[in-house]
Amino acid sequence: MEIAHSLQQIQSSYIREILAAATDKNVISLAGGLPDEKTFPIDLMRPTLEAIPDMVEVFQYGATAGYGPLLEHLTHTFKLPDSHMVIATTGSQQGLDLIARAYINPGDTVIMEAPSYLGAMQVFGLVQANMVTVPQTESGPDLQALESAFKAEAPKMFYAVPDFHNPTGVCWSLDTRKAVAKLCEQYNVAFIEDAPYRELRFSGEALPMVSDFCPQHSIVLRSFSKIASPGLRIGAVTGKVSYLEPLVKVKQGADLHSSVPMQALLHGLLKHDNFELHMSKIQALYHERYQVLNSELKKQLPESCKVKDVDGGMFVWVTLPECDTFALAKQLLANGVAVVPSPVFYPDESQATPALRLNFTNAEPNELVEAVSRLSTVLKAL
């Protein structure tokens, strides 16, 4: 049976493939965006885990939008206005998929930064969107290029990760956030704000979300994989009711509802008295590892390589002199280090500038030091 034309255009995830190779115990993986298993708050979840067998109602079919107590908690935590709602999803990735299926027709234009999140490119590719990219600067998207794209392309939406961008780690400035919100309102473009790393800030002051400046023109995707555990597979989508009701309709046909026991477990975790302490520990751990990686990169790499400082998230972006980054990644893997080359983060690989995305959250400090040593050796040999 022939597969759908839309799927024929989608390449397998390079990151998924390289993660399989990186399971070798001799390979230090800086490739995947994996949280450290030591951060999984098992002890904080234990009271709810022990109580769930007596919560018979969570084992029945549930509401498509989500488990009521969790939705109430999130509505309060996110300070949503009465005109907005929240949907619990099977990971924030499903939220992105629901948005694409609810709103994108083949050929509709979606604006993205370049580079951009690989998972978003896959989702938009499956609905056959016309993906148009704008360059990224140190403070966010190139605003002049963004406005030109809004004028020329009349897009339905602009998708971005403003806090600790995947893959570059860039955090948009306050002025950029306000300017993007204003442009979205001016040109009637929905802003899709993906915020999986926002809670992972370990230095500097938190900035308002972009959606705070354009609440009637935005949808927000949130993830609990980085602050609870990926295995729960619970995310959340928030936005005005008229934007989200079509997503509920699509979700009904997709999975009826996300796992109710897992939503109840997440609700218990978020209400726990020590949850804020848990978050502080995650931030401190990742800050320490980032400092080790950042310091070693600047100490060991050739001067032709540039490292961008970050204030949070999970990734460091290293720009390189002109080279074949796929061949480099293959050579590094042969030397026991897994990385992700920059072209996989561009809809058009030919537009990619040579760079590597490095993850610092799932390797011990001594492993990070050794990984940079191996990286440096290979780069100097080239």
From TrEMBL:
Cofactor: pyridoxal 5'-phosphate
Matches recorded under InterPro entries: Aminotransferase_I/II_large (IPR004839), Class-I_PLP-dep_aminotransf (IPR050859), PyrdxlP-dep_Trfase (IPR015424), PyrdxlP-dep_Trfase_major (IPR015421), PyrdxlP-dep_Trfase_small (IPR015422)
Domain Aminotransferase class I/classII large: 43-375
Key word Transferase present: yes
Keywords assigned: Aminotransferase, Pyridoxal phosphate, Transferase
Gene Ontology molecular-function annotations: pyridoxal phosphate binding; transaminase activity
Gene Ontology annotations of biological process type: alpha-amino acid metabolic process
Top-level taxon in the UniProt lineage: Bacteria
PANTHER family given in the database record: AMINOTRANSFERASE, KYNURENINE_ALPHA-AMINOADIPATE AMINOTRANSFERASE, MITOCHONDRIAL
Protein name per Swiss-Prot or TrEMBL: PLP-dependent aminotransferase family protein
Species this chain originates from: Vibrio paucivorans
